[in-house]
Amino acid sequence: LDVFEPLIYNDMTEEQRKEALRMVNLIKEKRDHTPENPHLKGRSCANGSTQRPHFTREETHSPTVSLDAFMITLLVDALEGRDVSFADVPGAYLHAKMKDFVAMIITGEEVDMLCKLKPEWKEIEVGEGKNKRLYVRLNKALYGCVQSALLWYELYSETLQGMGFEINPCDLCVANAVIKGKQCTICWYVDDNKISHVDPSVVDDIISKIEDKFGKMTVTR
Prior knowledge:
This protein is α+β, with helices and mostly antiparallel strands. Helix content is 29%, strand content 28%. The chain has six helices and eleven strands. The protein has a six-stranded antiparallel beta sheet, sandwiched between helices. A five-stranded mixed beta sheet has the order 1-6-5-2-3. Strand 9 and strand 10 form a beta hairpin. The longest helix is centred in the last third of the chain and has 15 residues. The relative contact order is 0.20.
């Protein structure tokens, strides 16, 4: 997904080096994890806490669907007998382009792991042992950066509008479109979607169009 690209240490300014975010790597057990059948989930993200003084709330705040709106759409689904689907966009933030210059530091063992995948990056790592580090520039909205949630919201809402949906002015995470003479509703919370229409084939089509843009989704009907 072209999430980041390498930076050459000597080409960076002192300020860029100083403000570079630390990469944080997390591993946790999934709900179906057992000692006999280990099931782990790994995630690498950025520690964006140092970014907060440089942004206003308006520059980073992202809408999320309200509980009221979600419950109202469920009532409409039930009253109209709609087909309802829940779908999860994979790696949602990583589809949104980072607009600002954001550098990140990868350190220690992670540098070795990454250089096994990208041997050409070995030439630009700096330091040794525990002080070994690699600087990269974020091309995409990596989880943990303060602006990532808003960048994803802007991309996803624009995508839905491009598909003919209109954003509800009362809740910016609810979108509607009239398809085959009936209303189709999508409400979403970050990367989780509820899609409903009386015709199951319309729901299928909407899911297919979203997958064409963002990849295969986990879908529950």
